[in-house]
Amino acid sequence: MESFLTQPFVYSDQDLVRRVVRSQGCETLEKLSKFDKRLRSTWTEKMEHGLFRYPLEDLKTRILPGPYGFVAQLNIMRGQERRKPQQIFSIRQQFDSEQFNFNKIHSHEILFQMSKQNSNEADVEPQFKDITSRCNENGLEGARDKVIVVINVSPLEFGHCLFIPEPTHCMPQILTASAIQTGIESVFLSADSGFRVGFNSLGAFASVNHLHLHGYYLDSELRIESAPTEPLVPKKGFHRLIDFPSGFLFYTEGECLHETATVIWQLTNFLVERNVAHNMFLTRGCPPGKRHEPALSRSGVRIIVWPRISCFGAKEESAFNVALCELAGHLPFKNRRDFDAITESEVKTIIQKYLLPGDEFTQLQSELCKQLHVHQ
After folding, report:
1. 212 confidence band (pLDDT: 50, 70, 90)
2. Catalytic sites, residue numbers
3. Phi and psi for 361 in degrees, rounded to 5?
């Protein structure tokens, strides 16, 4: 990474968009936010300048018949042109400066640097304060509150970008509370109900061992936005997503985001300590317990974490890999045969292979409830 050439994007709590409309065909409540304008315009400019591995045309999309409404998309070029994933051996694998990392990208891939105004030093979690290892081979000094937003050169969808907290700190692909809070705030910064953010842990199809989250736009409703839930530790906002695929859910309407992010980090850190791979997905959605209603206003963000079976050196599925977007119900396909022929039942069978067995999930749920009760 050579230098930060673009104007920083500085935001505050006043820039968070509190209410959007999910259903298509309804009058839009908000225009594009300044975050949307910045992301969409700079991303489009990079595409026009040929900085991606392939041009992203309008992707062929179909909704699979059935109650789950899986959103299938055909993206052949991503399967052909995507950078080969790194060799991953452990969920807690250390950062390796010799491997590809985001300090090695060209500065032209940077969309902008973003930071939150008036951040509080007391809000920083211990792992940021304890960081002593830095990689400054390219002459960059990382500031604590800076997040670099770069293009994903092999995009899944329009606006596909990566949020990289403090790239020069060389943090491995393990979530921090600050990274989680950045992800939640990024969804709230968008006035587009289709903007999503996600994370793949090591062993859950993360392809680069350097802390990053994905963000992209998807103009299709996902079932997880309104799927039913049941409470587990209500005081902590901890719920279980009882629809397939079962996972853990948090919900926020924008208040006390640091506290929400800290609780989620306590959960993901528990998973890391026990070598449980996991994926996380953030989307506008209904409050816990509520089901879908036509033209429903989305005032909050759902954060879903799926613990799953680890995959180290596994061969790719012929149809699709199961990572953050597939668990959320968005299925990018690498070939037309699978895209045209696959059924909802076949999708569920593939996904099920990567989920924890029922008894393991139940045991983990019990342990997490006890863990979060301890921190009350």
Report:
1. very high
2. 212
3. -65, -45
